Amino acid sequence: ITAAAEAWARGAAALPKPWKPQKPVLPVEGMRNVLITSALPYVNNVPHLGNIIGCVLSADTFARYCRLRNWNTLYVCGTDEYGTATETKAVEEGLTPQEICNKYNAIHADIYRWFDISFDYFGRTTTPHQTTIAQDIFQRLLARGFLLQDTVEQLRCENCQRFLADRFVEGTCPFCSYEEARGDQCDKCGKLINAVELKNPQCKLCRGVPVVKPTQHLFLDLPKLEERLEPWLEQSWATGDWTANARYITRSWIRDGLKPRCITRDLKWGTPVPLDGFRDKVFYVWFDAPIGYLSITANYTDQWERWWKNPQQ
């Protein structure tokens, strides 16, 4: 408090000169380098005040604070554009998924500009960089034995001639009997659901009754990572600033034992899977979307790895 009072008494003229980073903003040796991301907003809607307050505004406030502290700061964000929600919206509006993405990316960008959100770069996930980086990560996982293949019982709509990904099917939740549960989770009780467990399932496109059929998919072999993940978590909890909620959720996952997680989907709109036997599939959006933070930075600067693979700075 005394230091703040003295600084106030000295006036603005005595403050350090504001740091003006070069463009593009890159880590600087000897400075505090801060990379900030907002959760990528999904592209199938118009953002409202709650969305902005929920993640964008808080990150923007922190970015402004960091710049006032003369920390070398990069703040990036962008729209999350792949997955079934985009395909569903495209069907609703009679547009292609790409047209939906172009339309809503522009709306999002305009709204954030209107709010004067101080992004250094606002991008999107439907880019060549996204494909390159996501497929590279996939190939590395494959080469290191962290992927496995399995047969999955999946709902197929014979009328639409397609397997139904999570959001293309709805029915009654097997846990709480909510009648509008999706094929991946119930919005009422919050439980994760396998689509074939739904009671009275319906295809959201034609309202037909789907049938259960087998299909091949690729899984991230999370149990293989458990041994090296646990010591890393202990160290990270001890040295980092995890919230109590984040610690609790992570501990519950570890306590229950990690399960293999499916990372492919029978869809057209997504990053293609670069493996024979799976080239008609795309990556599941929750495998693909977090990689968007990297690819958006790569669209901002070809030296993106200096931010994402540079723990020393």
Automatic annotation (TrEMBL):
Keyword Transcription: no
Domain Methionyl/Leucyl tRNA synthetase: 34-311
GO terms for biological process, alphabetical: methionyl-tRNA aminoacylation
UniProt GO molecular function: ATP binding; methionine-tRNA ligase activity
A Pfam family this chain is assigned to: tRNA-synt_1g
Gene3D superfamilies the record matches: HUPs (3.40.50.620), Methionyl-tRNA synthetase, Zn-domain (2.20.28.20)
Keyword Glycosyltransferase found: no
GO CC entries: aminoacyl-tRNA synthetase multienzyme complex; cytosol
SUPFAM superfamilies tied to this protein: Methionyl-tRNA synthetase (MetRS), Zn-domain, Nucleotidylyl transferase
Reactions accelerated catalytically: tRNA(Met) + L-methionine + ATP = L-methionyl-tRNA(Met) + AMP + diphosphate
PROSITE patterns: AA_TRNA_LIGASE_I (PS00178)
Sorted UniProt keywords: Aminoacyl-tRNA synthetase, ATP-binding, Ligase, Nucleotide-binding, Protein biosynthesis
Superkingdom of the source species: Eukaryota
Family of the protein in this entry: Belongs to the class-I aminoacyl-tRNA synthetase family.
Entry-linked PANTHER family: METHIONINE--TRNA LIGASE (PTHR45765), METHIONINE--TRNA LIGASE, CYTOPLASMIC (PTHR45765:SF1)
Protein's UniProt name: Methionine--tRNA ligase, cytoplasmic
Organism: Rynchops niger (Black skimmer)
